[in-house]
Structures are given as structure tokens and as C-alpha cells.
Amino acid sequence: MSKAIFSIEQVAEELSLHPKTILRYVSDGRLKAAKIGKQYRILRPDLEKFLGRKLDKVPNTTISRERHTEASCVIQIDAISKQTFSRLSNTLIAAVNSRGTQENSLRVDTLYQEELGRMKIICIGQLADSAELFGLIDTFLKNTI
Prior knowledge:
Alpha-Beta Plaits, 3-stranded antiparallel beta sheet
């Protein structure tokens, strides 16, 4: 199992340290890690090199058996004015923020390409939440001249 991959949290738990301490080790270059998306992953050989010893056991690597589904998409809307973009963007962000903080919250980002009159909406979240967002966008666009 020399190719096992660990999260910052798993390493912190194994070493009885705070995850921020492990992140500092990674930032300082003391512990080699690969950034995948927004998270770091540490290979077992790199962790063993950092520790100066072989690991006796594999840190907690249990696989979650709870099903989780998530959608990530980019929605493109052409022929949209900057004013309409601004209104829709504010509506989406307000809708997402009104949901409160949830463990698997919906994440939305928007951008506007003025020279093309094009809006892009980046959405990441659970399927039902994403579907609600799509419905909101559809309703907004149908009611906008």
C-alpha cells in the first residue's frame, strides 16, 4: 500500500496535530503535497519521508458509504444586457445566500463578457438544489424582456 493517498485531515489526525499545522508544513515546503481542486493530497511515501519512518498503519481511510450526488455545470446565456446580467446575478446570489449554511451548500459564480453580450453561470451543488437554480434562471429569463 505504498501508493495510498491521504487528505490533510487524515494526516493531522494520524499525527495528533491541527489541520492548519499540516497546511503550514505543506505551504513551507516541508511536506510534499499535490493540490487537486481546492484540496491537498499527500502520498504515503511523502508522508513517510516527512516523518522519517515507515507508517505502522494506514491512517483512517474508510470510504463513506453514504451516497452523495453533485452536479457541476456552466450555463451560458447569449444576448443578455449588462443590466439584466447584474439583476440575474444578484438574484441568484441572494437565493443561494438565503439558504443559510449547509454542509453541501450550493455554490454559484457568474461572469459577463460584455463584448459578446454573454453571461456564464457556474453552478456546483446537489442535484435537487441545482435543479431549483435552473428553474429560477428559467423563470427569470421568461419574465425578462
